[in-house]
Amino acid sequence: MAKTVPSGSWPTCRKSGPSGSRLTSQRRSRRRSKPRLPARRPRSNPKPSPPAAASAALPRHRSPPARRRTTLDWLFTFPQIDPAHLLSVKRFIDGSLKALTRSYGTAIEDFFYPLQRVLIFFEKMMTGAPWLVVIAVMAGFAWLASRRWQVAVGVIVTLAMIGLLGLWKDAMTTISLVFTATIFSIAIGIPLGIAMNRYSRVGKAMQAILDVMQTMPPFVYLIPVVMLLGIGRVPGFIAVVIYSVPPIIRLTDLGIRLVDKEVLEAADAFGCSSSQKLWKVQMPLAIPTIMAGINQTIMMALGMVVIASMIGVQGLGLNVLQAIANQYFTQGIFSGFAIVGIAIIFDRTSQAYGNRLQKHRGASHD
Question: What domains sit in the chain, N to C, each tagged with a CATH number?
Fold first, then answer.
């Protein structure tokens, strides 16, 4: 009777004895004697894919041949200083300025501290005063300067529109800065204009300096004041004054030069000294021209306030800068309208005062 194998188990067949061991040794010898094939190596030049083959078939791009040097190369290549020497000069200048600011920075800040207090005083006076008082005072000044009620009404309407647009505080900050910068520009410009007229050497030197100042881009004025004073209210104010002072200097000199020679001869005939002739004859007759210079100074100061906002000056210029940076179209338009309105107020008031003085002088001479 055959034995049944349980499910899940299989019998193992082993050949015992000499025949089984002999068969195993023969199999091992066959495996050892069987030659092994060498491992496949990757092809050095595989068959390129169709796009690669197409690109390989195209001609390779060759760089253009170098231009041969000729005797006329100096006409096409401008001579310049050795870049290494130029870099050393730049490093020397930058290092000197940094050493200057590190050594005397505190002294420079202390020197301009009174100016900072003056600016803060005028700004607080304009922003802290009641709006009715500010409008009444500015309209009163406009009427006194022009003696025309139309100018005063224009001032009232313009300031009211600025307030309705929500720009009252920023507008007062800008007006205080422009007003203070105009006062400083007049205090600096009129004496320099008189010196240009009275001394020929000073006139020649100032003429060259003013030519450079008026042809220089406004952004360049920000570089020296920022390097010396950093960012803030005072550096921006100094940049505004430097940018706006040339017109008052030039037109003061021009107004004195335009005085009629017959009037000067009459003053000499009456025995006037040079100082009497200047302050009692030349300066009164030059006032209309000087007022034109003051008008231009105000306009240039107002234009520079927007640029000076890049170095920390508050006011409408900062609103314009933020509108440009963040693409706030409406904010930029409203701030621009406010700046134009302030410019119209200053322009009409100063121009009307100059015209009234000119008519008064003409009537007195007649």
Answer: 116-365 (1.10.3720.10)
User: How crowded is the C-beta side of 37, counted as CA atoms within 13 Å?
Assistant: 3
Q: Which helix (H) or strand (E) holds 136?
A: helix 131-146
282: DSSP letter: I
DSSP conformation letters of 73-131: HHHHS-----HHHHHHHHHHHHHHHHHHHHHHHHHHHHHTHHHHHHHHHHHHHHHHS-H
> Cα–Cα distance between 162 and 334 in angstroms, integer?
9
Pairwise CA distance, residues 163 & 167, whole Å: 6
Q: Which of 251, 247, 236, 39 is nearest to 119 (CA)?
A: 236
pLDDT tens digits, one per residue of 155-201: 999 999 999 988 999 999 999 999 999 999 999 999 999 999 888 89
The answer to whether the pTM exceeds 0.85 is: no
